[in-house]
Structures are given as C-alpha cells and as structure tokens.
Model the fold of this input.
Amino acid sequence: MNMLSKGDRKKTDRVAAPFHLTGRVGDPEEVANVISFLASDRASVVTGADWAADGGYSAMGPEQAVPAIPLLEA
Done:
C-alpha cells in the first residue's frame, strides 16, 4: 500500500480504515513484535496456531465489495 500511495501514510490509513478493525495499516515494527514474541521462550506453549497481524483485516472480510487499490491510485 505504501508504494501505491507514494509514501502518503495518511492517505494509506484513510483508504485502509474501512477494511481494518484498528482503522489503520500496521507498522512493520508491530508485525515484528508478533514474530519476536512467537520466536521467544514466552510463547513456549503456542503450537499450531494461526496469528494474523493484520489489524483486523481478515476479521472484516476482503474489502467488502469496495476495492481499495483504485482508491490509493486516485
């Protein structure tokens, strides 16, 4: 999304908000935090789980019938 919006984070978040429970796109550091936790001893009892670090995108469904990509290019 960053490439399509030409680095305009406000535009990216505005377009992404309707499709993410958090109302924004996550930062790479936030995804890295999930990975770091799962790779640590603190996650020693986590087995066979799916973790979606997607800001709630998968819970809301794929873009509901409104494609987001054209909005970024506008």
About this structure: The CA atoms of residues 34 and 53 lie 7 Å apart. The two ends are 13 Å apart (CA to CA). Residues 28-38 form the longest helix (11 residues). The mean pLDDT is 86.
